Amino acid sequence: MKTIQISAQQRTELGKKSTRDLRKADHVPCVMYGGAEVIHFHAHENDFRHIVYTPTAFLVEMKLGDKVHKAVMQELQFHPVTDKLYHIDFVEVFDDKPVTVELPITLIGAAIGIKNGGKPRQRRRVLKVRGLIANLPDSLDIDINDVEIGEVIKIGDLSYENLEILDPARSMIFAVVSSRISKGMEMGEAEEAAEEAAEAAEAAEAAEGAEAAEGDSAAEA
Q1: Cys-Cys link to 84, which of 48, 79, 134, 211 (CB 3.0-4.6 A)?
Q2: Which CATH number, 2.60.120.560, 2.115.10.20, 3.40.50.2000, 2.170.120.20, labels domain 100-220?
């Protein structure tokens, strides 16, 4: 996992006025959880551009005074009108404790189904995984060379050493479906199967999401 260093300043004052003043100075208020205490700090918005406006996941070495905290970015907030970076939540991480992060997906190769006239469909571009910092790669590589028209790669088809994938196993990542005009041929059973498999995977993911939401609602009740 790539590492980047950022120098920040710990906040000495909290509250709405202090936060507004920071944002007027183009600084971003931040919070770091997960350590012995919650840390409030800030840095200029330009200091975060390399970790915010990129699909790459970073381990951040956050320098606060004479201390350096290892952290990963957890949540971003943007102004609803100006889209200006408004707030960042970080989670402090430790070498001996697993951490949950979202890692980008990298598709490797050229699917044979695309070469034969099929159309690629990518449903997910990141996956949520859990593991030790030392075992987290820059991205999750997925070989698509052998994917034919009518075939789907789901999360449950994947495995990575020393990593636990936390997203639903039935969720679709990649498929090759019929273009309906591939080489002037009519759509056959294989192409129909691809469309159905992709749609079924998406429907399964939506159903799991709805079940999870119902479970959360029941727990809150």
Answers
A1: 79
A2: 2.170.120.20
Cα angle, residue 5 at apex, residues 94 and 84 outer, rounded to 5°: 105
Model confidence at 196: pLDDT above 80 = no
Which CATH code for domain 2-93?
2.40.240.10
Task: Give the start-to-end residue ranges of the domains of the chain.
Answer: 2-93, 100-220
User: pLDDT tens for residues 44-91?
Assistant: 999 999 999 888 889 999 999 999 999 999 899 998 888 889 999 999
Q: Which residues of 123-160 are buried (b: 16+ CB within 10 A; e: fewer)?
A: bbeebebebebeebbebbebebeebebbbbbbbeebeb
Work out the pLDDT band at 181, boundaries 50, 70, 90.
very low
User: Which has the closest alpha carbon to 173: 193, 192, 151?
Assistant: 151
